[in-house]
Predict the structure.
Amino acid sequence: MKTPEEIFEILKNKFGDAVVEIDTETPVDKIITVDAKKVHEIGKFLRDDPEMKFDALMSLSGVDDANGEKVTNEEDGTFEYKGGTLSVYYHLHSIKLKHKVTLKVSVPREEPEVESVESVWKTANWHEREAYDMFGIKFLHHPNLERILMPYDWPGGYPLRKDYKNPEYYHGMKIHF
Amino acid sequence: MAVKTETMILNMGPQHPSTHGVLRLEVQLEGELITDVKPHIGYLHRCFEKHAEAATYPQVVPYTDRMDYLASMYNNFGYVVAVERLMGIEVPERVEYIRVIMGELQRIASHLVALGTYGVDIGAFTPFLYCFRDREHILDLFEMTCGARLLYNYMWVGGLSHDIPPDFVRKTKEFITYFRPKIKELNDLLSFNKIFIDRTANIGILPLETAINYGVTGPMLRASGLPFDIRKEDPYSIYDRFDFDIPYGQGLMGTVGDSWDRYWVRVQEMEQSLRIIEQAIDQIPDGDVKAAIPRRVKPPKGTVYSRVENPKGELGYFIISDGSVNPFRIKVRGPSFVNLQVLPELCKGYLVADIIAILGSTDIVLGEVDR
């Protein structure tokens, strides 16, 4: 059983710059930030290393950090964010060693590309599809990256982004809300 | 060796009685053999997570009711535990005891629906009626406590919406005495019924390695032979005070991790829930159930991932707070969503009629899959 700080040290020694920082200021969970292109490798190490054995991915969540520049449209009062980041949080748990850790990757809003961890934990398959569906985060090397909760051909963008605007029509039908 | 036939695509759902909701399965068949299953979900998508961002923390509780509508109490439970952890609230003992009792009653109610409808799927109608008759007693207990029978909004951040009425304790004890023999009745009727066993044993085997890699939790994981229960592994509330066993699959009628094992784990869990209620019901201390409810729920900046053992598996809430009264982001890790994902693995190589037996044994609620 290891604390997040110990895990961070081990990862830092193994992966160097790909492991960015550990955030210990949040009240409950300590979060390790890693590089979006290396998250697959790090995940594989965390799953297979005998001291880590993170065999279960509890949850994978996309988040819109909404930390870019807010541009308001004067005419209709809508707004959108320029720049800033989207993030993905991975909550890992080891059934055998009973420890937990949270990983986080942040990617630029305009080009959100994260390496898929589907081949490490199958749980990630639908979770990554959901994050793609809701936030437009592209998971590289995902076997079947398509929308999952919204209609497959939804035209209106990504609903859980903070600057989402509902489209007016879907297949010629008016959307009333 | 069978002659290779042309592949046939069969659509099951969205309106199909045995899909337990609006789920569409695109089934690929070679003759009667299943070669692939592709679940299409999202028909009940309401974007709960978007609504939650516009609501205050207490206002989110009714939304959680509507995810897994067969286990609303437990969805409330998971959510309030997460927010309390984020805010560092200590809730009174009385509240903890009542929450555990309600949660376990809800577990029995949810399992009764799962078991009863599973019988219907296989073709046994009577056990379904018996299960719903017994579930009615639990719903009556909920109704006398908070007025609602399905969607309770009962557990609030820091407390409860209502205290238990005076004769709740007596009636719950009556229920325990009433219900124990009914489990045996269910076993005689369905669990050890020859036809039922033939339809479910050795069908839809889920190996443990696959289950863990797919993140499967709850009765499905335990049926694959691993006694893993968050109530014991990662205790929340006051579950560490009670004495109960974790039933797990042993392959009594066939192979470990088959559909019958999943069914049987649920039957045994009802017995364990009764044990927990029995221990808790006599110890409820006095107190005010609303004493610790904060006037203004405004958690500090930060994140929390908190999980509880829902009747169907691990229910996790990931909450990001930006320090305001509205949650910045709530992500729900629903057990049904994750458990459904493993369905194609379970079905491959079985006959088309087995899909129903396999799907029923996974016990999903589409309200939570789609959220």
